[in-house]
Amino acid sequence: MIHFIRQLLSAAFGEKRVDCWLGAVDCIFHRQPTTGFGGPLNGSRARLNAFEELKRLCSFNAVVETGTYRGESTLFFADAGCPVYSSEVNPRYLGYAQLRLWARSNVHFCLGDSRQFLRRLIQDSTVPKDRVFFYLDAHWHDDLPLREEVDLIFRHWTRPVVMIDDFQVPDDSGYQFDDYGGGKKLSLEYLNPIAHLGFIPFFPALPSSEEVGLKRGWVVLAGDGFSIDQLRAVAQLREWRQHNG
Question: Which domain holds residue 150?
Fold first, then answer.
């Protein structure tokens, strides 16, 4: 019966809209959800502290997030006070996050592919294009969007700071990372084809043996003198120099 009702609603209103409603229902009955990711930014205290320090040093005009999931990190970013733009490809997850953050007027959600989302932001004159923080976490499927995301960001924003989740830390195997096979490993090698954009990677200064949370690897990218100088001043980050690799 439930399946039949869902089919009727999907036929009348569209499957994605119905999934968004179901996500809102999920939120209503699980007001304090266990997301399975240890809290915002995977529960990494070093990563949370790094963002707070970057926010202080860079005075971000906006935060852009790809991969909303249930809004755990989105809620954390919303407290920064600046506009937050977040995209999610799964309508049920988006519906959950939308209801969870309904009172946060500075948060703007988008349903769809993260690359198309970034292109829409590029065309939107109301979206800041300078000193924006990006949190990229939309890599779930075989169609890995990360390289295109980074390319769009460094071509169309000035002084961006980009944090990527689930990324390989080259000299610390204790940090876990995503590897989808066929050359789709979240690593510096994966980003090599767009290295000409001039971004410099910074990895966590904290060894994985001392990290808390899920111990997922991460990297922060910056591509101009101002942003790079700010990142060098953050205790939780260490610059990756070519002779290290």
Answer: 2-244
